[in-house]
Amino acid sequence: MALNKRKKRKLVGKMSNQKQYPKLTLEQAIDLVVAGKSAEGLRERTT
Predict the structure, then answer these.
(1) In the chain, what's the furthest Cα-to-Cα distance?
(2) What is the model's pTM?
(3) pLDDT tens figures, 10-23
């Protein structure tokens, strides 16, 4: 008697639970954070 084969096989090379993240440069991310801080009335940068 043959063994039962799996009905659903996993895809190789592509994960199903990968999240899509926005692609921002470091400069764009810093500008976004600084704009958010200034909108809330916080200091822009600390040294």
Answers:
(1) 73
(2) 0.45
(3) 666 666 677 788 88
Chain center to CA of 20: 5
Q: How is residue 38 written in tokens?
A: 């200034």
31 vs 25: CA distance, rounded Å: 10
Sign of CA dihedral 38, 40, 45, 47: positive
The three-class DSSP label of residue 30 is helix
User: From CA 44, how far away is CA 36, in angstroms rounded?
Assistant: 9
For residues 23-30, give the mean pLDDT. 92
Gyration radius of the chain over CA positions: 23
